[in-house]
Write a structure and sequence with these properties.
binds acetoacetyl-coenzyme A; seven-stranded parallel β-sheet; Rossmann fold
Length: about 240
């Protein structure tokens, strides 16, 4: 029987590439989104992948959302925590709202979603939790104290959760993308982005399908011995 995968922030950018790659791999896929109804509608129309609208930063909303996915597709075998935002600004200009928005959406969401699937995975003796971190949680980045804190936080979270569940058939891993060709990266001003790309050893932005391939591997049966790991997919920009 096909495994069920839930991809948060799965209707565009890296998340959409992940969702589509799982679909091609024969999984039953659900995507979540929060804001952009038009993009979600055209994503579902194009792929047939259902999109569930809820805020991953809100535990009660996640509870309802996960219930809806389970009712429609079945118990979740693979959770991909991908949803994320940036609110880039120097710390000396950052507001408490800019700090909290990023921590809620990029870090607390990983607690919310993982908490809601982990008991069932433990009961069934199988599960894969894969969280999208970032090179900027490993190496830091100007304007991203909030984002770097959240993206580093998910790495520690995943290691602890991996230990807790290693004997239960559940693996918990992280993919840390570098600069990938998405709206988020394209929003960086041209001169700053040019300077970043010039420092990438592979000399180009990454592609969303290159991140999806790493996620699919971690979800596979072949990756059963890999847990608590962080896969860097960053064109050589950071080798941790
Ligand atoms: N790398 C190197 N230098 C940077 C930089 C970066 N990422 N970001 C800013 N700088 C430099 C600027 O070039 C500028 O230098 P000069 O004074 O020598 O010209 C200086 O810092 C100040 O920058 P700004 O003039 O742009 O100042 P600002 O207050 O208007 O904006 C900022 C500051 C919000 C940090 C803005 O520069 C910015 O958005 N920078 C990009 C930050 C970034 O790289 N974000 C990553 C987004 S992609 C992502 O997050 C996905 C992922 O996981 C990889």
């Amino acid at each position: 029987m096909s495994k069920v995968v839930l991809v948060t922030g799965g209707t565009r950018g890296i998340g959409a590439a992940i969702a589509e790659a799982f679909q091609k791999g024969g999984y039953k896929v659900a995507a979540t989104y929060h804001g952009n109804d038009d993009v979600a509608k055209s994503f579902t129309a194009r792929t047939g992948i259902p999109a569930f609208k809820f805020d991953v930063a809100d535990f009660a909303a996640c509870q309802k959302g996960v219930e809806a996915v389970v009712t429609q597709l079945g118990a979740i075998d693979v959770l991909v925590n991908n949803a994320g935002i940036t609110r880039d600004t120097f710390l000396h200009k950052m507001t408490p709202v800019q700090w909290m928005d990023v921590i809620h959406t990029n870090l607390n969401s990983v607690f919310n979603m993982s908490r809601l699937v982990i008991e069932n995975m433990r009961n069934r003796g199988f599960g894969r939790i894969i969280t999208i971190s970032s090179i900027n949680g490993q190496a830091g980045q100007i304007g991203q104290t909030n984002y770097a804190a959240a993206k580093a936080g998910v790495i520690g979270f995943s290691k602890a959760l991996a230990l807790e569940n290693a004997g239960k058939g559940i693996t918990v891993n992280v993919v840390a993308p570098g600069y990938i060709d998405t709206d988020m990266v394209r929003a960086i001003s041209d001169n700053v982005l040019e300077a970043i790309v010039a420092r990438i050893p592979v000399k180009r932005l990454g592609r969303t399908d290159e991140i999806a391939a790493a996620v699919l591997y971690l979800a596979s049966d072949e990756a059963a011995y890999m847990t608590g790991a962080t896969l860097n997919v960053n064109g050589g920009l950071f080798m941790g």
